[in-house]
Amino acid sequence: MDHSLFSKPRDIFLDIVNPRDYVQIDSVSQMYQNLKTSVQKPLKMILLYGKPGTGKSMLLHKLHHDLSKHQKVFMIDIPIIDEGDFLRVLAQKIYSYVNREAITLTNFLELASAVNFTQAPIVLLDEAQLYSTALMEKIRLISDARALKFVITLHKTDDEDIIAKEHFQTRIWESIELKNASADELKVYIQKKLLKANCFDVANMFNDKNIRLISKLTKGNYREANKLMFSLFTLYTWYEENHPSKIKYNALNTKYIEMAALHTGLLHA
Ligand SMILES: Nc1ncnc2c1ncn2[C@@H]1O[C@H](COP(=O)(O)OP(=O)(O)O)[C@@H](O)[C@H]1O
Ligand SMILES: [Mg+2]
Predict the structure, then answer these.
(1) Tens digits of per-residue pLDDT, 61-85?
(2) What is the atom index within ligand 1 of the atom nearest the CA of 178?
(3) Do 79 and 132 touch, CB atoms closer than 8 A?
(4) DSSP one-letter code for 116
């Protein structure tokens, strides 16, 4: 049995994407409301882009979770990079058309025109930087035909500017950039995660100095923050079991935050 005060906070910072764990951060919630409005407008395709760990998959999962209560929505979270397979899976999920063979774009558009949805079904594609230009072009044609509405996410790295690629440059895209959290937002993120899990005592241990350090170390990246928090609470769990006298419960120990940062590779000795 694990009775540690710190094992629960540790586990809530596992890097998992589940819409039930979504916490509201002002700028993100604003973006999310805009996204929900945009999704209901015809034609335009929506692009969510940002560096890894800025919350793109989380927002997409949240959208999927909320929309699926009222309309037909389908998510492909692991890219299907083969074109024929991609269309076959979509045809099956959206039009209940079962076929073991790959299907062509013409077949697909025929299927689409035979079905009458009051609203175009919404398709969510995560990690769309992995799709080929040729497949992105087909996705655009399907969108143009108003058969489906697409929302895609793209990793934008420093060395490769994917959105500069031709197929993302046209006016058919509405793009939304996700960014790392500011120190204030990171504070809200960490506090809300802890409070949601009823970890009140641990939430109270964070002071502004702690937050500034965590923000500096992680640059406000949600994934890096998760890793750091996981590592920090692993450390606290260990001390609690082995050297409880080393733990002060009124504030986080800066040294432990730095040790956790070393462990996760955010700091180099
Ligand atoms: N608004 C949020 N609420 C709760 N957790 C979030 C939020 N935004 C990001 N996260 C968490 O941060 C981590 C990184 O987010 P993720 O969506 O996987 O980033 P990306 O897809 O941009 O790489 C995930 O574990 C996710 O659960
Ligand atoms: Mg992702």
Answers:
(1) 999 999 999 999 999 999 999 999 9
(2) 22
(3) no
(4) -
- Identity of residue 112: A
Is 9's C-beta closer than 6 angstroms to any atom of ligand 1? no
Distance CA(212)–CA(139), nearest Å, equals 43
With a 6 Å cutoff on the Cβ, whether 17 touches ligand 1 is yes
Greatest Cα pair distance, the chain, in angstroms, is 71
The confidence score (pLDDT) of residue 4 equals 82
- Ligand nearest the Cα of residue 196 is 1
Ligand 1 atom showing the smallest separation from residue 222 Cα: 12
Q: Which of 18, 35, 56, 58 to mutate to test the pocket of ligand 1 (most atoms within 8 A of CB)?
A: 58
Give me the DSSP letters along 202-255. Answer: HHHT--HHHHHHHHHHHTT-HHHHHHHHHHHHHHHHHHHHH-GGG--SSS--HH
Q: Are 125 and 152 in contact (CB under 8 A)?
A: yes
Q: Find the 56 Cα to ligand 1 centroid distance in Å.
A: 7
Two structure tokens written together for 156: 């934008």
Residues paired with residue 122 on neighbouring β-strands, in sequence order? 73, 149
**117, two tokens:** 């949805």
Tokens of 229: 């928090």
In 146-221, where does DSSP find H-type helix? Answer: 183-196, 200-204, 208-218
Atom of ligand 1 nearest to the CA of 51: 22
Residues, CB within 5 angstroms of ligand 2 (ion):
57
What digits encode the pLDDT tens for the residues 122-167? 999 999 999 998 999 999 999 989 999 999 999 887 666 666 676 7
Name the pTM for this structure.
Answer: 0.93
Q: Tens digit of pLDDT for each residue in 229-264?
A: 999 999 999 999 999 999 999 999 999 999 999 999
Quote the pLDDT of residue 173. Answer: 83
CA of 222 from ligand 2 middle (Å) equals 11
